[in-house]
């Protein structure tokens, strides 16, 4: 793909039915559960992108047998049943936050040093909250560089106790830390009781983790909305289907909202595991027409109005919301997302900077941003090596001329065919 990509407006309303690639979040949870499980699992609908390929590399290093089908969406995995004796260090997470944070907890199940490393961008992202929890469980962690950052060597196992260990996790930090501990807990000798303290962000991702764990036979109780009790049950193999990615779907829904016309997504609906399906509730509040069925969601564009909305539970769609806000008839404010400053980039600062580059009045707030709709100018938008910046900012260009995206290939992290799929929405374009 070129170093920059000019986005050509659609020039009219769209009409399309789309099946996005499999959910990255579900894929990486299911891959890891299958790799730890007893027996052979078959996963279908799997996403193949940089983040999930990083997880595949790591589960091979755990000693799991992995066979990718000819369709590249089916993966057969024979797991290790929690035994890391055949694990081959070092493990390399690339730029994948889910892979790094999940594996940190899993490597603590071994009884010898196992090293986890990542690309430079991931090395700069502190993991102190998760690592402190592991230390509490008796795990030794040795750092090769900065403290609480990768690369690091983990030496377990989690200490056996007279009763189930209990730890507390700050719910205001990335849910990936908590999900990693939950995913590893069925192979801890006494299980784990985990309590969330403080404000809880991205709760739907924790519910997703529990749902995937239960599909692979784990015994997980949630006596209240801050407590998880995981028993030492292990995992068993499962034939598991990964539903389409709701975060990826948000771009197609947004395209209908701002360009006019209708987009239907099959495979997502009222029964979806992913919290990001609720992005369409925001579009409905702004004026778009939304229909949610059990296994499909349809969005039809209409006049859009500004809103003030808390995105703490659907933060991966905040940048999509920023693009949609440009086309409303009044300002919009997104709150509750201060923690996304620690993602691939400072996603609040990056959104505001690039909208201003387009001539939009955008303001950076402590926990979000405010966007005043307006006309846009010609600009090449930076993407900060952040796939979501590229995909969300491109949306503006599908409705208005003059938008060029720098480093468009960064979408390979989660959606390698994004720009090809968007072209299929073009009236009269390829289908």
Summarize the structure.
With 431 residues, the protein is an alpha/beta fold. It is built from 13 helices and 23 strands.
Distance between the termini: 20 Å
CATH fold call of the largest domain: UDP-n-acetylglucosamine1-carboxyvinyl-transferase, Chain
The CATH architecture term of the largest domain is Alpha-beta prism
Count of separate structural domains: 2
Q: Could you give me the name of the CATH homologous superfamily of the largest domain? A: Enolpyruvate transferase domain
Mean pLDDT: 95
Number of strands: 23
Secondary-structure-derived class: alpha/beta
Strand percentage lies at: 15-25%
Low-confidence stretches: none
Supply the CATH class of the largest domain: Alpha Beta
Task: Give the strand order of the largest sheet, numbering strands 1, 2, ... along the chain.
Answer: 2-15-17-16
Q: Please give the share of residues in helix.
A: 25-40%
Largest sheet, in brief, is: 4 strands, mixed
What is the number of helices?
13
Q: In one word, what is the shape?
A: globular
What's the Cα radius of gyration? Answer: 21 Å
């Amino acid at each position: 793909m070129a170093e920059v990509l000019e986005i050509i407006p659609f020039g009219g309303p769209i009409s399309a039915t789309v099946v996005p690639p499999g959910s990255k979040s579900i894929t990486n949870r299911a891959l890891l559960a299958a790799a730890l499980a007893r027996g052979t699992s078959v996963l279908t609908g799997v996403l193949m992108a940089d983040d999930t390929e990083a997880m595949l590399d790591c589960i091979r290093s755990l000693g799991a047998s992995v066979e990718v089908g000819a369709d590249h969406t089916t993966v057969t995995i024979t797991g290790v049943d929690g035994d890391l004796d055949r694990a081959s260090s070092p493990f390399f997470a690339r730029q994948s936050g889910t892979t790094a944070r999940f594996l940190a907890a899993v490597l603590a199940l071994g009884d010898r040093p196992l090293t986890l490393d990542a690309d430079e961008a991931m090395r700069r992202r502190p993991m102190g909250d998760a690592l402190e929890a592991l230390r509490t469980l008796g795990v030794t962690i040795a750092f090769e560089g900065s403290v609480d950052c990768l690369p690091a060597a983990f030496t377990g196992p989690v200490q056996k106790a007279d009763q189930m260990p209990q730890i507390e996790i700050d719910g205001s930090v990335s849910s990936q830390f908590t999900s990693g501990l939950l995913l590893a807990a069925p192979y801890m000798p006494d299980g784990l009781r985990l309590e969330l303290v403080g404000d809880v962000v991205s709760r739907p991702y924790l519910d997703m983790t529990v749902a995937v764990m239960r599909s692979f036979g784990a015994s997980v109780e949630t006596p209240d909305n801050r407590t998880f009790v995981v028993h030492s049950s292990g995992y068993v193999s499962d034939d598991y289907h990964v539903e389409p990615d709701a975060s990826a779907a948000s771009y197609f829904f947004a395209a209908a909202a701002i360009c006019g016309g209708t987009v239907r997504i099959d495979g997502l609906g009222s029964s979806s595991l992913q919290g990001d399906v609720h992005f369409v509730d925001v579009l409905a509040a702004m004026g778009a027409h939304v229909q949610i069925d059990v296994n499909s969601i349809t969005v039809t564009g209409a006049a859009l109005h500004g809103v003030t909305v808390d995105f703490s539970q659907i933060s991966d769609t905040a940048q999509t919301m920023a693009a949609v806000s440009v086309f409303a008839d009044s300002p919009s404010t997104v709150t509750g997302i201060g923690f996304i400053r620690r993602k691939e980039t400072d996603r609040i600062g990056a959104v505001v900077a690039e909208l201003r580059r387009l001539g939009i009045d955008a303001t950076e707030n402590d926990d979000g941003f405010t966007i005043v709709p307006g006309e846009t100018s010609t600009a090449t938008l930076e993407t900060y090596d952040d796939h979501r910046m590229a995909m969300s900012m491109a949306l503006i260009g599908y409705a208005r001329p003059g938008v060029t995206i720098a480093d468009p290939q960064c979408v390979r992290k989660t959606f390698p065919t994004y720009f090809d799929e968007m072209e299929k929405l073009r009236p009269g374009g390829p289908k």
